[in-house]
Design goal:
Length: 874
Amino acid sequence: MKVILTHENADFDAIASLLGASKLFPAATPILPRRINRNGRAFLALYGAELPFVQPDDIPRSKIRHAVLVDTQSLTTLKGMGRDLQVDIIDHHELNRKLPPNWTYSGEPIGAATTLLIEEISARSLNLSSIEATLLLLGIYEDTGSLSYIGTTARDVRAAAWLIEQGARLTVVNEFLHHPLAPEQRELYEQLLEQSETHEIEGHNIIVACTEAPEFEEEISTLAHKLRELLEPSALLVLVALNGRIQLVARSTTDDIDVSAVAAHFDGGGHKRAAAALIRDRSLQEVREELLRLLLEVVHPGVTVAQVMSRGVQVLSPENTIADAAERMRRTGHEGYPVVAEGHVIGLLTRRAVDRALQFKMADVSVTQVMEAGSITVSGHDSVERLQRLMIESGWGQVPVVEDDHIVGVATRTDLITLWGTPPTPPRRREIAALLEQFLSSPVLALVHRISQTAHEMGYVPYFVGGLVRDLLLGNPIVDVDMVIEGDGITLARRLAADLGGRVRTHKRFGTAKWLLSKHVWQQVTNHTSHDALPSVDFVTARTEFYTYPTALPQVERSSIKQDLHRRDFTINTLAIRLDPDHWGELVDFYGGEADLQNNVIRVLHSLSFVDDPTRMLRAARLESRMGFHLDPRSEELIADALPLLKRVSGDRIRHELEQIFREAEPERATARLDELGILAHVYPGLRCDRWLQTRYRVIRKELKPETWNLKPNQVTFIYLAVLTYRLNDEELEELITRLMIPRDDAQVLRLVHSLKKDLPRLEKARLPSTTYRLLQPYPGRAVAVTWVATDRKQQRERLLRYQTEWRLVEAKLTGDDLKAMGLKPGPVFGWLLDELRAAWLDSKVKTREEEKALLVRLLAANKKKEQSRKAGR
């Protein structure tokens, strides 16, 4: 076993070096020290779940043969270490002693140990998440004084710049950095700390600290920073009465509190997060009281817990066992569950606790023996800042949300991390409401309002979700109206039908319902007798999906809108609009979908997306080509990694996705992208989309007229599939038919296409229309159409088209009834005679009915003579 270690009382450079080394040595286990500085503990409490660190108590029991020391030259001994232990030191301090055998040192004097590791990570082009980049930047900034210490080198600066390019968040870095105080500053700092008061306003903790310091001559902004860092309020306002004046320093950690407005009131200045004012001829008490009154006007509720939480939380009871919890976590992927007794939260059970309990054979014990006991909760009205503080103080990564003594949801670390990629924006209700009015007709809008009101009365929340919202924001027409219901979609549909009329079709397994709208419904809602543009409304119960194994069809459970959105394929399909009366028009964007929509990006939600459902690869190519968007680099990498899983997906699912592509306006674009990404070759190795295929697809789009070839609307997709397979040999075609589970009738036509392809040389040699007719007559129209599209030979295309439009329609004027009237007995001779007569018409050997009758007489005579010769030969 190989481990990565650092020193005790670890600072950010030590923790970041652990992470950096783990990126370079992925087979090694990074072990956190037992003592970590306060800011480091706070960072790990919030974001540690996204990092690869292992607690000392969780080290697997195995012999440790190799240790990497970072930001230290002293070894922390662990169980399992032997005398033959190999130790490698990576440090930014000079080596200060002679090393024992099996020890090595690499490093050099530089601002931060983290920089040494970043240089190698950058050289290898390794990927970093935003959280990883931020922690690494904290390591550099802390040990270099934000790149200001004398020991800082150009290499530290370059490493920091590279991390910012990788997504490191400077706002988070600034939040967690620590600065020492001078003695006189510390004395004033202690006074301010003692005099500080906490005020709860609009869910925000705001601290006002006031004191007198007539002899103090230094600036006090550093003290404000330290107080904010220690007390972690949403805003801090410091008032210090100096000699004849009062200094106001204001700091905010959220856009919900604009401290520049506070400073401006006192004739000061600054910006939203930092401001100051110098107030003269006022008493400290007078200014303090005025400041408190002003805060009631300045502080506004911003992003609340309700906006980021997951509703419909699942809970455990004391009667549940560890085995019960483990099975539920396996199915849902949740990292923890509140434990509730008699309606009250009594603890939190985490995945880590469950894993350790199972390790110690405790599957049958109650969850109460393993849970973290306590009653940590928030309300939906609380700010995310309060949620963050509770997580840091309690260590709970999943905090229950309670309203009116009932648990209504849960807020998690992931919810906070999501805010990194999608900074909170105003709800934009008016803008979205205006778009709804613009793109929905008045009757449809009235119907949606009626649905919204009924859902609200039932305690449900309706949403527009996915493609409808995406098209609305892009300004595209809205065709269908689908709603996701946080509640019970089937019950809502039945209630609407009972109140307004219409019929309901349901699918209980998926919680879906289709409300078929009748004239009576429209009469009730709009006083119109009908509205043909919208025959039905689909309702989907908000649900979550989990996969029992990669590529399996999903299992479904009722859930919240957030989890319903999380099961979707791409971020641009995760946008939702709330439609309940009190929140009409609010845009819900948990996963950065609108930003990707604005940047023309197709991005998957999580790294296992293509593993869960490999058919999403085909959908990604389809969306790219339709919308003119592009996959982000990470999603392309995930596609490349998941390509082998396509062989485990059923053929009919892949064929369905291909057919969806063939229905696009320009199928060749998406098909070419499938080829470029390697998807087409993994569907079947013989498939390719080169210039030839793209040209043929354009022929289908621009030249193939379905009415000419008697194609039904749904049969055009078959033409695309057939042309895609046109260049396969017979053996490959049979393999593809089996792989894609192509229906029997379609498979037979594909075989006939390949048979006709072999007959094309004979077709080109045919000089008479009748020869062409006899050659093509056995083939169905679809096979002829495919061949007309696929062949490059002009003469062949002309004859195929003339056969389809002219020659196959030619019939003899005389019929079988005419032959019977002439005294002939029905039999094989009938077919021969009629075929010869048709051939004569085709080849212009007869042009009138009289000429046809004369030919018939000659044919009968020739046939009689032939029969006589045959009998004589006996």
